[in-house]
Design goal:
The protein is mainly α and about 210 residues long. The chain has two domains: about 10-95; about 95-200. It has helices at about 10-40, 60-85, 90-95, 100-110, 120-145, 150-160, 160-190, 195-200, and strands at about 5-10, 200. A two-stranded antiparallel ribbon has the order 1-2. The longest helix has 29 residues, at about 60-85. The chain is globular. The two termini are about 35 Å apart. The structure holds protoporphyrin IX containing FE (HEM). Protoporphyrin IX containing FE (HEM) binds near residues 14, 186 and 192. The site of protoporphyrin IX containing FE (HEM) has 17 residues, from helix 1, helix 5, helix 7 and helix 8.
Length: about 210
């Protein structure tokens, strides 16, 4: 029998994308840290902790990085196509304006923003759109670092090989900052997690958190 108190809030394609994307991003970041360590990215000898890296050595880090890159790119491309053509982005990520983001941010900072399980608030909308754009720019700058000779035109646009390296590093840092904030928000409103797995949200009174 259909449970009338539960409603579907995340379609299957979004959930599959979300979790494959999370796995791919974590693999890319940890193997990227291994590559930074192995190539002495920091001139003062600082290194990412070994336990937080993937791949053990430069070649291993690069192999993990490339394997995860294909997973990330194919998964992201399918999500973007479905999101654009199904109306998912239009419905869930828009409208959003600087004014609505500022207003929701102020409410959230005062713990006066009620969490709506069906509609994202403007801060969520802006951060989801933002992280997707940052992921795309980070992938493109990664291609420039990988094939700087073949992709000279792209390099010119990104400030050459060194410019692309900087953009790639800044992109990685912004993605990590997003993950920290995203996980903190999920921890504050844990009832959002099960729907991202099952797709369904059970409308119970105790779910009306205020963030
Ligand atoms: C690692 C990189 C991650 C990225 C880039 C990411 C990105 C996103 C995006 C773009 C959405 C909106 C999806 C849509 O409606 O199309 C979303 C929603 C969500 N994510 Fe993530 N995510 C990441 C990791 C995680 C992790 C590790 C968790 C939980 C442990 C998580 C939990 C959630 C939940 C619960 C929602 C739904 C929020 C709500 O309904 O209010 N995410 N995420």
């Amino acid at each position: 029998m259909q449970d009338k108190s539960s409603i579907k809030i995340h379609r299957l394609s979004v959930r599959v994308f979300h979790w494959l994307n999370a796995i791919a991003i974590v693999m890319m970041v940890l193997s990227g840290w291994q590559i930074y360590n192995a190539t002495q990215f920091w001139s003062d000898g600082w290194a990412f902790p070994a336990w937080a890296t993937l791949g053990d050595w430069l070649g291993g880090g690069i192999r993990w990085h490339f394997a995860a890159m294909w997973l990330l790119m194919i998964n992201l491309a399918v999500y973007l196509l479905i999101g654009l053509f199904s109306g998912h982005f239009k419905r869930r990520f828009f409208p959003v304006t600087p004014r609505s983001v500022t207003s929701d941010f102020i409410k959230a900072a005062r713990f006066k923003l009620p969490h709506d399980h069906v509609n994202y608030n403007s801060v969520q909308k802006a951060s989801y759109i933002g992280v997707l754009l940052v992921i795309i720019v980070t992938i493109v700058s990664g291609f420039e670092i990988w094939k700087p000779v073949q992709l000279q035109a792209l390099g010119w646009f990104m400030g050459g090989y060194e410019g692309a390296r900087r953009i790639h590093f800044i992109g990685m840092t912004l993605i990590c900052a997003f993950i920290v904030m995203h996980l903190a928000l999920v921890a504050i409103v844990p009832s959002t997690l099960i729907p991202m797995i099952t797709g369904k949200w059970r409308n119970k009174a105790e779910n009306n958190h205020v963030v």
